[in-house]
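[agent] plan:
  1. take the single chain provided in the ticket
  2. run structure prediction with default settings
  3. attach structure tokens to the ticket
  4. add a short note for the reviewer (M.T.)
[agent] executing step 1
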Amino acid sequence: AGAGYSSSGGLFGTVSYQQKNFGGNNQTLGTDISLGNNSLLFDVNFTDPWIGGSESRTSYTVNAFRRRSISLVYNGDDDIETRDTDEDLDDDNSSSPRIIRTGGGITFGRPIPGDPFKAREWSLSTGLQYQRVEVRNSDGDIVSESRPEDGSELLAASDDGTDDLFILRFGANRDRRNNPLQPTKGSVLRLGTEQTIPIGSGSILFNRVRGNYSRYFPINIIRFSDGPETLAFNIQAGTILGDVPPYESFILGGSNSVRGFGDGEVGSGRSYFQATAEYRFPIFKIVGGALFFDYGTTLGSDDAVPGTPSIVRELPGAGYGYGIGVRVQSPLGPIRVDYAINDDGGNEIQFGIGEKF
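[agent] step 2 finished; step 3 output follows
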């Protein structure tokens, strides 16, 4: 249990519980509940890693959730204001939109080969999820439109600020890393697609395709301390075919994207490409370092997002960042602190848990 303060929701309290061997069957039950000003958020999930001892080792996960995030597409920019569904466009309300997602789903997973005595080559997953998406302002009121300087645009696909998303998902992963938490050699490939069914509010129809590939090479350049040195590379790309609700667009910039830029400060678009190179090295015992270079672009697709928020905010749509970082080992995983400079001369100190990839 805990308590805290968030700039997006004020004071809040949390209660979390996880049982890793529910019923003595290696099943996992997890709950996470957060209660704050005008909000109740939760995530409840149950996983059975091996359904009925099936020969294929098929697993399933069911979950229900209510989540909130600040929209990085708009991010509270003064040039893009929001208004309530009952407000006139002359009313001034420049709060950043909050995206509330309420729903649930089921996901099935299967390793290939299914024989538990053979090395897993691929992991396949498929599932169905439903989301009720609401766009709200900082007061918790549903908002329907943004107001750029040159007119108004819808924040959601429907004109009342709420959308229904029925999503079919399929994914395939091939993991050949020697260590999933701190890899020093090998590779990992992730492919995925999502197809929405156009029923409910907004009648949203799109297909999203994404790919992500990372490769790791052990090297020996500078021996600061005992421990492995690694050259790590990552490339990823994606595109959306069909409808593009603003909150579903690809967002670039931030500690897990192009470092040196703030979250969402490179741009948002229908498509994207991103690449990263890192040199990771030990310094002493539990502390390591990294030199890195990031690049990302929306591939000129900023104008395909309704309201063209990236263009209204005069974001570049493409950019790179480079810098140096420190990694501190902790029970939560590596604590990542990076200092990066971007191609426009700006700089950021950014934090994260775990390696970027």
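[agent] step 4 note for reviewer: Residues 87-93 have pLDDT under 50 and may be disordered.
[agent] ticket updated
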